[in-house]
C-alpha cells in the first residue's frame, strides 16, 4: 500500500509518501515541506499548498491519503490556518479520486510510538527508526507527515482487510441462503 500523509499547515505543510503493509516495515519514498509566505495573500497560500500536494500525488501515485485531523489549540489564528490547509488537502485528494482518512494527533502518536501522549521528538525518533533513516526528517512537519502515512498503512490497511473479510463473509452468506432457497440471480 502506498500512502501520502499530510500534516496540514498554512506556513509549513508536511507531505510524506511511504509504502508498506500492515505489521511490516514501511519504506520512505518522498518527504517535503510545502512552505508559504505568511505575508502573501491567503488564497495564494492555499493555492500553493494545493499545488504542492497535487505535485506529490502526480509524482508518487499513492493509493490513499491520510491527513491529520484538526484539533483545537489555544491560538485561534493557528487553528484556522491549519483547518484551511486541511480542507485544501482533503479537497485535493478527493479531486484526484483518492480515499482520504483523517487521524487525530494522539492516534498517530500511539501508532508510531505506542503512546498517544508522545512529544514531537519521540515521534521524529520513531519515524527515523521505523523507516531506517540515517538522518531524522526535519522540520517536525516532515516527520509528522511520515508518521501519518505510517499510521495509515498499519491501521488503515488492517481496517481495510477486516472490512473486505466482513464483506466477503456477507456475500458468502447471501449466496449460501440463495442456494438453500433456490433463488438465483
From TrEMBL:
EC number: 3.1.21.10
Cellular localisation: Cytoplasm
Residues annotated as binding Mg(2+) 2: 68
Top-level EC class as recorded in UniProt: hydrolase
This protein's GO CC annotations: cytoplasm; Holliday junction resolvase complex
Manner of cofactor binding, per the entry note: Binds 2 Mg(2+) ion per subunit.
Keywords: Cytoplasm, DNA damage, DNA recombination, DNA repair, DNA-binding, Endonuclease, Hydrolase, Magnesium, Metal-binding, Nuclease
Alphabetical list of CDD domains matching this protein: RuvC
InterPro entries, sorted: RNaseH-like_sf (IPR012337), RNaseH_sf (IPR036397), X-over_junc_endoDNase_Mg_BS (IPR020563), X-over_junc_endoDNase_RuvC (IPR002176)
Binding site for Mg(2+) 1: 7, 141
GO biological process: one example: DNA repair
Cofactor(s) listed in the protein's UniProt record: Mg(2+)
Family: Belongs to the RuvC family.
The protein's assembly and partners: Homodimer which binds Holliday junction (HJ) DNA. The HJ becomes 2-fold symmetrical on binding to RuvC with unstacked arms; it has a different conformation from HJ DNA in complex with RuvA. In the full resolvosome a probable DNA-RuvA(4)-RuvB(12)-RuvC(2) complex forms which resolves the HJ.
Protein name: Crossover junction endodeoxyribonuclease RuvC
Gene source species: Longispora fulva
Amino acid at each position: 500500500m502506498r500512502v501520502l500523509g499530510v500534516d496540514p499547515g498554512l506556513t509549513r505543510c508536511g507531505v510524506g509518501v511511504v509504502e508498506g503493509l500492515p505489521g511490516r516495515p514501511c519504506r520512505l519514498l518522498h518527504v517535503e515541506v510545502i512552505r508559504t509566505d505568511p505575508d502573501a495573500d491567503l488564497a495564494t497560500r492555499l493555492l500553493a499548498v494545493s499545488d504542492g500536494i497535487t505535485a506529490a500525488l502526480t509524482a508518487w501515485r499513492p493509493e490513499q491519503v491520510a491527513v491529520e485531523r484538526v484539533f483545537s489549540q489555544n491560538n485561534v489564528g493557528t487553528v484556522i490556518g491549519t483547518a484551511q490547509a486541511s480542507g485544501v488537502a482533503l479537497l485535493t485528494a478527493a479531486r484526484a479520486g483518492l480515499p482520504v482518512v483523517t487521524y487525530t494527533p494522539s492516534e498517530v502518536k500511539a501508532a508510531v510510538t505506542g503512546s498517544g501522549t508522545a512529544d514531537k521528538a519521540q515521534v521524529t525518533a520513531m519515524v527515523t527508526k521505523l523507516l531506517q533513516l540515517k538522518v531524522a526528517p526535519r522540520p517536525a512537519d516532515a516527520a509528522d507527515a511520515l508518521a501519518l502515512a505510517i499510521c495509515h498503512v498499519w491501521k488503515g490497511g488492517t481496517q481495510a482487510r477486516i472490512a473486505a473479510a466482513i464483506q466477503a463473509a456477507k456475500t458468502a452468506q447471501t449466496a449460501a441462503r440463495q442456494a438453500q432457497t433456490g433463488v438465483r440471480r
